[in-house]
Amino acid sequence: MTIYSENILTLQHLIIYLILHINPIFSNEMFTLSTIKFYEGCKYLKNLKPGIEYKIRHHIAKDFFAPNICLSAVVGKNGAGKSSLLDMIFRIVNNLSYCFFNHIEREASAPLKYIKGIYADLYYQVDDNTGVIRINDLSLDFQFNQICYSFEKGELKPPNNRPIPTFTMQKEFAKNFFYTIATNYSLQSFIANDYVGEETIPITSNRTKSWINSLFHKNDGYLCPIVLNPYRDNGLIDMENEGHLTTSRLAALLIEEDPEYSLLDDYTFYKLESNWQPRRLQERFTSILDGKTKLYPSEEEVNEYNQEIYDESKKLHYEEGKDLRDFKDIAQQKNSFAYIILETLGCPVNPNMSDIQLYIRMYVVYKVLNIAEKYPSYHIYNKYAGNINYLWTTLTINSQEEYARKMICELTQKAKNDPSHIGLKLRQALNFIKNSIHIDEALWQNGMDYRQYAQLLGITPKGMDIEQRINWLPPGIFKYKLYLKNKKTGAIIPLEHLSSGERQFIYLTSTLLYHALNLKSVPSDGSRVCYNKLNFVLDEVELCFHPEYQRLFIKKLVDQITRIGLNKKFDINILITTHSPFILSDIPTQNILCMENGEIKNILKETFGANIYDILNNQFFMNKFVGDIAYDKIQEWIDIINNMNLESISSPIIVQELQDNINLIGDKFIRAKLRQLLKQKQDSLFSEIPLTTQIHILEKQLNTLKEKLGQK
Known about the structure:
The structure is a single chain. By secondary structure, the chain is of the alpha+beta class. It contains 24 helices and 20 strands. The strands form four sheets. Strands 2-1-5-6-7-8-9 form a seven-stranded antiparallel β-sheet, covered by helices on one side. Strands 12-10-17-18-3-19-20 form a seven-stranded mixed β-sheet, with helices on both faces. It has a four-stranded antiparallel β-sheet with strand order 14-13-15-16. It is globular, with a radius of gyration of 33 Å. The termini are far apart.
């Protein structure tokens, strides 16, 4: 019996309801930055204005671009205040980071600093819920719904004098705040010295240590909610290192490439080549006594040192492979760090081991010690194993030895089982050890294709999800080289031979996805601070991009985000600053903040799906539509035509030169208008003279043209 009623859900509707509400594929929340407002007395504003509400909110349907992805833009001419606005957002988030995390040891990161002199509010929206950071110089309030934390000089003021457990507060904060991944590849941006004069807490005697240094790519386990990219050493970007990082970040994405969502339309993945790099690790080890003297300098370093030493007895002697021999000895001593770690992992050293098997074990010990040295979530092990140079030492025989041994074993097991990016390189190395024990070392000498690598390790060379594939990439003792194949010509080229625009495109995209995947890997089991909202800030995003790349950029980025499922894990907001009409044609006007001299200018017409010329044909972008030399020349020719008299209009040479110049104009409309203007001027002047005179003038012009044609 079937019952028909508008008030009763059909079985199909009920199933859909349950799927969406009990086990949702996507989050139901829309996260977007909303407004930033400054108050009188706020420093560092440049041309930004107090009292203005700078609205940077996504205003349209939350799934317009893709499920759980909001996107908005800030536009304006150079000097309009776009980058200044982003800098103020970074300062506000920096101060918030200091308040929540300044007491946590972050050994591998520059210390956090609180910036004085800021009077501002930063609002964000999660559906109908509003979050806000309010800064009044040394006072800071963070509020989201019923949650409210107040700080004075970076110290928490507990409500009603009720103490709040630090980690509980941090987890609650992360659950309700967002993580920002910001990029700007302009050489003039994020230079530490530009921020040195800003007063901070704590005050440091070394003024070169700017607060911005703590926001660059850092090893704090994604604790503080912001990272700036690429890393700069006082404004300098190490492009060789950026290239290396990009190769490793891209490897899994390209191996598991989906033709429907290719990064570069003209290329496809060809191969990943791995080369064993023995000296990449030895150069990191220094003396425990001074932390500076290299234990295993290269042959070049030894020779350079000896050139300055005249006493033969004090000269250094280089021994090839001494590090491996020393490691083999120390790793077989039962009270050494190396022995304890490798025994715990089930991969001890034996006397007959090949060099590559020794080296990968050295790398494993190094990674375990490195984790204890760097990451805040492993700080309890820092006292016992927080120095990579312990690799070459043994435990001291005393009453504390057994406890230290226990802590080293516990550290090793925790690192091995860490599912996040912290344990990734260790997992890669252990996968290699487990599956490569019987592989001939000669195979590694001249580089190995990833297909060979996968075959030798007994895994499929394609067909995993990206996060699983990352675990099976060659470990850190190898250096990667990526090759692409041109779809049109079939040419095979290494990644570094792409054009600067193509490389910029993949550098930017791979950086964003790398950090996002690392954030995704942070376990949500309560053991770490885990963010569930992600904020991409892309400043001057079109640098080096051909207009076609500008046109494709937003779709390419959204496609890659959805391809690897980031929008299933995070509510995502993307904020872009741009000068590009090609990028703006993908963004509705409601989502664009227009700025001029630090003020808001609501004069931008419809942008979404608009013709590029129509977007440019707005004085907000351009008062002129050609280059200045062309503009001046066209204006000069217009003036010549307007000022022509009967004598000049009768001169075949003058008229012909003017016509030749008009023919140089590339824009058909402008070219036609100038021809029309010249014709109107001729007709106007000719109408005042007898017909016979007109015929005579035209005959002279005709003869001149014939002579010119004859010369050609």
